[in-house]
Amino acid sequence: MRKTGLSGLPRAAMLVAMKTTATLTAQALRMPVERRARLAHVLIQSLDTKSDVDAEQEWDAEIVRRVAEIRAGRVQGVPASKVFARNPRR
Fold this sequence. Notes:
With 90 residues, the chain is mainly alpha-helical. It has helices spanning 11-29, 33-47, 50-71, 80-86.
């Protein structure tokens, strides 16, 4: 029976992946700042998923709805200074 790690990969494969990740990290940290920033940007963008797009569309719809309520006079906005005065920790 093969031993597996938490990821479900065989332990040997996990160790190789960990070494590869450590090697890539070390190499990336030796890169000039501009190249590291570009790499970081690409990696972060690769984490964006469809659910993020859906959430963004839902927030856009919520903003449109709230603005329409304010313009129609159904609700009244509260100045940020009053909101923050109620909760000074923010």
